[in-house]
What does this fold into?
Amino acid sequence: MVPHAGATLLLRTAQTVRLPAALSDALAPWRKPLAIHDPAKVVLDLAVSLAIGGNCLADIAQLRAAPEVFGLVASDPTVSRCIDTLGDAPAVLAAINTARAATRTRAWALAGEHAPDRGADAHRPVVIDVDATLVTAHSEKEAAAPTFKRGFGHHPLWAFDDHGAAGTGEPLAFLLRAGNAGSNTVVDHKSVIRDALAQLPGGHRRGKKVPIRIDGAGGTHELLAWLTRRRLSYSVGFSLPGDLTSIQQKLATIPEQLWEPAYDADGQPRPGAFVAEVTDLFDLTSWPPGMRLIVRKERPHPGAQLRITDVDGMRITAFVTNTTRGQLADLELRHRRRARAEDRIRCAKDTGLANLPPHDLAQNSIWCAIVSPACELTAWIQTLTLIGHDARRWEPKRLRLRLFSIPARHARTGRRRLLHLAATAPFTQLVLAALDALAKLTAAPLADTG
It folds into this structure.
């Protein structure tokens, strides 16, 4: 029996979107003339090991134990030396990002009508969510520092593409930072947003088709002014200006008829929740032109901790946007869906981000660059082969348990080697159907995406 034969789906997806070739071309300068193991193959093997549940370099042994599925896999010392070599070259990150961008362009082209950017416009945009997270370090690592939550580790900033309610999402860019890095550091947000925009296929770089969603960490003068100059649409969490008393007094002047019902996650009116635009109630002259200020009030759910900032027992939150069209409830619902970034971060931590194994910051940045294609392969499997099935929204743990962990019997016949997936596994037919879908995509010519 061969373990993890279901992970063939990961390998076939990588081949379909031409990720191995793109990585090989990008990392060619770091390939030694007499080396047996291509750095691109090592990076891809590490990504696959993370996708099937690994969380450190040594977990690549799971692939090495199944050469019938994964082929020749480098030894632990070779993998360690490869990461050391790549970590010493700052240009490696740019090279990997270039390969990822080219691969994403092909993956979205193959997805056709199910691609995240198909028919993108102001009503159905390609949304970029920016959010930070904390990664705990259990030993002294470079740039590990005390965090604002009284922990110790790193504070990376990530950007994700949101696939909407029908799907999951995929990472676009990241910036590995020290644990004591600020939450609202403008320079870091600019860097991640630039890198995220560069990952999008051509024609989706700016404008209303690509809104940027950020929590309150993005609500700074400099970042909002930069987004405005770049002609980017945005929806950003915001702290109402002024002291508590003046804020409460201004909100109390809003007539009841101006409060519109807010929507729940399904787009239906939510009882006890309301939204209103208060752009004219506050002094926003120092902020970028065209910025709209929208507030939401809602009675806290049972058991929620009350705050001193609550007004008449109603929880007040606010955000700003430069979107001029659409109902307030729709704009507010679009902003609240930024919470999906938390799901993407949780999935990324379940795919290797929860642990940064090396000591050096540069090597851990390479590790994050390996986490990205691991998450992307999973997302592309769902986008290309699992449309219309509940598996389109399965998270990594469920995909591993039900698909990637399926074993197989290895058979040789003539000059062919065959893998017979376990017929008793409940989801073997789903894996076979997904492999057939990939084969059809490979055989069919790409439609013109220009």
